[in-house]
Amino acid sequence: MSVVGLSSLSPTPATAWSPAVTPAPSAATPLVTAPPTPITVNPTTPSHSVAATPSVNGSSQFLHITQRPGSLETATATYEALLEMQNRGGRMQVWEQAPDNTLAEVMGRNTSGTTQQGRLAGLGSALLEQVASTGAGYRQTVVYMAPAYSPDRIQGKAMDALWSFKSRPSGSVELSIETRSGARVRLSIHDQREPSATGSGMSVEIVVDGKLSVQEREALRALAGGFDKAVQGLSGDDPKLDVEELLRFDTKAFARLELQLESYGKDRDGNRVLTLGAQLQVDGDRRAVQLRSREGVVKMATDLRQPAQWGTEAQRANAVEHYLGRIDKAAERGQAQPALVDLFKSTFAAMHSRYDAPQAGVGLKLGTPLHTQTGTFGEEDQGLLTGLADFDASITATTRATNPRRTQELDTFHYTLNQSTHITGSSSRNRAVSQTQTAQLMASYHQSLLVSAAPRLDTTSASQNYLYNKVEDRSSTEVDLAYDNGEAIRATLTQAMSRSQHTTRVENNQVTASTTTAPGEQSRHTDLLPLLKQLQRQQEAQDADDTARRERQATLQAWHTQVLQGL
What is the Cα–Cα distance from 347 to 300, expressed in whole angstroms? Predict the structure, then answer.
């Protein structure tokens, strides 16, 4: 596909590039730029065109046309031809710079896509490959718009489209990275999927502040697959947080990473609404994510400052599986929306998918705090802890007033999970650890008198037959361990739980019953000191006895499950 430059046209003949007309790019037809052939353009009317010289870092001038209506395959690039394009209702594909690299090829292919996921596919990795290869900034825009009859009009329409992309996009992505050396890299994508008065298309930009080393550029290239997976996961019809590969970034090269994504759609009235907003922030100490959708908000933060409490990969996977089961039970009890619950579960799993252990030898240095030493706890300690990094997680459904006759009856769902760990001591032989897990559910919802589904409520009394439930549950688990000169001196497990439900029964718009179920708080306190001493004896015997080894592992697994399940 050839390129035509439309700059510096004047009433006298000027040299330009002649386009070879091809169909619009599709997912199966990659964009290929052929060598341009110079011709003479003969404008028939004077034009005050805008002269520009594109640069590798981008220019404010849109000078390159790579698509024209098929009816003009043999037409020369005159003003009469451009006017005919406008009259025949064709479309022009206009680029900010010559589309002569892999990134432009991906853009040209993706603009034929009809879904946000399809239009963003591969763009993240192409952007990272571009900056890794050059170490410099870059900008490119492709616009599909109605034909214009002069370079000035083409320029004006293209700039209007670019402004529209950035101010009201159908989707946008931004990845910001700060390197250990202090350099900053920002990659952005603005996509306009829906045709508008200014046109459709997309714009990408790379901004580099500082000089990137060879190691940093290679670390950027290594992020490509993870960046694409994260974007594809969040931009699908059933969004999920898929950041395991992205979290594997080189911590020696990068100090901080932030990912932002927004997708927009239309509501029932045709108004533009946010369908998903995502923000992920990661550094050496902390991970934090917030996801917003029409169904609600998911938030989670993970504290990575205490590697001492991290369990093995198998133990962490077991803990995550138990937590996902607890989320399902809470969602069922509070009648949460499945799509929002699935998003919360994918977020919880993703934020615990990978922990970066400290560099070898750090935990052996004299004076290093115990919480940073991966060898602080033995197997018996780890068996009584979750194995997870500390976290705060919450899911909050959008509050809805679904009953027009009783607007004070709101449908709500709010569920929180938390873990905090306190580690003290002068050495691994003289140490103490206290780990607390908490969970809280607060929900309210309408339920049909006949089935478990939500009733269809309207302003008529005949529709007012339902149960209105309010649920409030709380639970906590605390493990407290202490050692003196290597001997266990304190080991306790304290668990508590309370559940309550208030139900109002309405028949033909009349309250016929109101009941409260509140069994009261249940609690259990277990002295684990005998267990710890037993585990220590089994530790001494397991090297010579396979049976003792199996018994010890079974005991550890059983108590780990008890710590995770609660009452």
Answer: 8
